[in-house]
Predict the 3D structure of the following.
Amino acid sequence: MFAEFKHTLRKLRGQIIGWSIGLGLYALMMARLFDSIAEIEGFSELINSYPEDLMAMFGINDMALITTPKGFLDIYYFGYMAIIIGIFAVGVGAGLLVGDEEKGILDLVLSYPVSRVKLFLGRLLGLVTATGMVMILSWLSWVLSSIGTGLDLTLIEFLRPFIPLFAVLLFLGTFTTLLSLFLPSTRVAGMLSGGLLIANFLLIGLSNINENLEAFVKFTPLYYYQGGDAIDNINWEWFVGLLAVTAVFSILALWRFQRREIRVGGEGSWELSSLRLRLRLRQSKEA
Amino acid sequence: MTARFAIKTHGLIKNYGKVQALRGLDLEVRQGEIFGFLGPNGAGKTTTIRCMLDLIRPNGGTLRVMGYDPQEDPVSVRSLVGYLPGEVSMESNLRVESQYRYLSDLRGNKIDWNFVRELAHRLELDMTLPIKNLSKGNKQKVGVVQALMSRPKLLLMDEPTSGLDPLMQQEVYKLLREAKADGTTTFFSSHIITEVEAIADRVAIIRKGVIVEEAEPSQLLSMEMRRIHVRFKEPVNPSLLDQVDGISLLSQRNGLFVTLQVEGEMDGIIKALAAFPVVDIDVDKPTLEEIFLAYYAADDKETS
């Protein structure tokens, strides 16, 4: 298991470094922006001129908060980071097992004395660790970037919003891994998962201006993502809830992986295709 | 666990949806032998090997590899096996040595690195190169070395010399013979007859998911199968000869020159030819390749 964990981390090191550098540079730029934002002439008037519904759609209830560290981080960073870093989680999740299967690598790896359970757990642990590393490096980049600026938050206050973000990313990663084990390719799994993530983000926005959607969005993961609100306090119930669903996805993915045939070119099939074939056969028999 | 047979299958069935890849495969590979598994593309060679490693699961029949059931105890099977896939795919960004270190980790670091270096040297493989920079032939060498490097009890090789030049092919044959001398069983699939003739102790021919022949290469060659070239004095209707039991018409030109394949005793063909004005008869024994092709020609005939 440790060999697979080590290998997964080695494979993901480029992504970990790339994402961390990108997010670090963004943090550096935004931290410098914070002090100047309140001083921009006419900025408050401009913000206040936006329609309330439009602002509500982006989860902004009080634009005056933009000049506070918490409001600034919520609006300019954590409000949409689940989408941005979500791309990382979706990509890693999609390729975790099936990516290597499509390349034919799994065919060789699984001829070595490693059980499917250990291979799965090693790679899952790699995903969790890689995501955690991106979170820690992003947190550090905010801590360092805020030095000498008005973002006077404590280390813990900076850290708190990364914890629910971490839970959402694990949710997305394991969900995409699970999808990839049922769908015909990593690309389809990634596209579907990414599409659902964006749809969820938009739906959350729409639910802020349409109360009828409130009941529906409760069944979506981003509803339980706190964003910048976690700077003050983490909703541990939501956090544990997201991790619990993540665990369920992981167990289902492991179950599926253990029963699944390792495909190579020309072999295997999409389960839904064979389901459709079975339905067609049943219909023709009935006819 | 010791077993008389390194591989034993009985009635092995594997379906891909409606396609029957294996239709009751019976196979026995003895410990310590080099066993050639001969068949054209799509005959079920790779499917058989992948079932042995629990990469895919059979739909019926029994399968034992080194005494273990791969579905019940895949890790025990794999701990004894070195596998070379038909198409060698590895992490393209890794260097060859890093790839071997990863694979060695999966075996619990029980690899003799001097032996790995010796194998690489003999196959003229540079272990410092990234895999993405290697040619097809060199990638095949990487695969051959990784299959051999743990000195496995059983080698499963899917077309071991694919993409290698003739010199390297000979070196791989030599390595397999040396592994045999150390007690390793080798089961390899191929559609290259000369390869099977060169190294296999025994050979099985697979056709459409069933074994149609299993013997030593020399036995196959000495089978009572002959090819007869007949020159007639005047044109004859060769289809009359094709109707005789054990005789099949391979080719004919103007009814004057006819090539026939005869299975079994020559009595039938001699009596059949007696009815025609024969100028010359030439009899030869076919190569393993021709025997192999004859199985498929017979199959086509049955199908049509």
User: Anything to note?
Assistant: The interface with chain A takes residues 16-17, 46-47, 50, 53-57, 74-76, 78-79, 81, 83, 85, 87-91, 102-103, 105-108, 143, 146, 156 of chain B (CB under 8 Å).
